């Protein structure tokens, strides 16, 4: 293994092991490794079934980048082999089988986002098929002989489902073993994951020990709560902030989080110094600062990380104009369509079926959603709320749905004389 002569200051080690960290197994061994000067191999894997990255993933990615800046090497494992046979979600369903073409396309998308945070030059990309592609049935049976059913059932979601009489596929029981073997294949020194990955990471430690390798350290990060303030950030729940979303969208979503999450986000997805966070906590406790002020700082920090300072400043100007001063964005997408196709009567002004219009221009996914938003007063035309499904609309009108969705509609019909 490579070594690095550079000695890491104690304050850097303390920051690395405390800020944005849920648990380290084993922390004392991890500290000694960092002080040894050894160039560590940091394991990070991903399932190419879902290529998009959101702020929830950034908690781990930022930690990987911090290790890289101290001279360590990230080993990114692409789960191409397991993705092609259907990767279980660990809940009760299996993810779809993917073709190699789909895996490659998803991997390309993922890595483009991954390297917005992690240093590409200090990352080694490995594909699972490098080792599992050579596996025979004998190899699989030998791997399964290393562990017992009792050990696997110690995983909380397995035991919960078993006790509730819910099905668990044999394939699912194999995945912790396969993830553990990944650590053996790349000789990982440290494996990173959220607290929901504790069991699988520990399996890697055990399998390495059985094979004569030094067991990896397990570095667990907290789960980031979504913008709803309740559940884990997830694209399927719609409470996520994607790292490749436009700066205005990221800024606006950050501003929408509950006040209770402000410090949570500052700690996990920004580099704002700890001392400042202590001051923020005191100011919020004493109510000597408006939470909106801190949210703006948080939004600027996040957009700057993912884009640059100029994009963050422009996003803030946009937010203030559109949401605080109730203005209209300077750049609004246009949609050209035939008004007559959406109007029951071919006369002007056009009395348009608004629910059909919203679906047609892509501001909502269904007419039922459109009708619900209209009833809630969340649909505006040229700044005025509408409350009836048939409404006069002129060419060039600006349609607004919710807080952030705008579209200008242009009529393509020839005027009827």
What's the name of the CATH homologous superfamily of the largest domain?
Answer: HUPs
Proportion of residues in helical segments: 40-55%
Distance between termini?
82 Å
- Overall, the morphology is globular
Average pLDDT works out at 86
- Any idea what the CATH architecture of the largest domain is? 3-Layer(aba) Sandwich
How many strand units? 13
Largest sheet: 6 strands, mixed
Number of helices: 18
Poorly predicted sequence stretches spanning 5 or more consecutive residues: 1-5, 87-94
* Radius of gyration using CA atoms only: 26 Å
Provide a descriptive summary of the structure in words.
The protein is an alpha/beta fold and 417 residues long. The protein folds into three domains: 10-221, Rossmann fold; 247-324, Tyrosyl-Transfer RNA Synthetase (Orthogonal Bundle); 334-411, Roll (Structural Genomics Hypothetical 15.5 Kd Protein In mrcA-pckA Intergenic Region, Chain A), CATH 3.10.290. The chain contains 18 helices and 13 strands. It has a six-stranded mixed β-sheet, sandwiched between helices. Strands 7-13-12-9-10 form a five-stranded mixed β-sheet. α10 crosses α11, α12 packs across α16 (309-324) and α17 (354-360) crosses α18 (367-375).
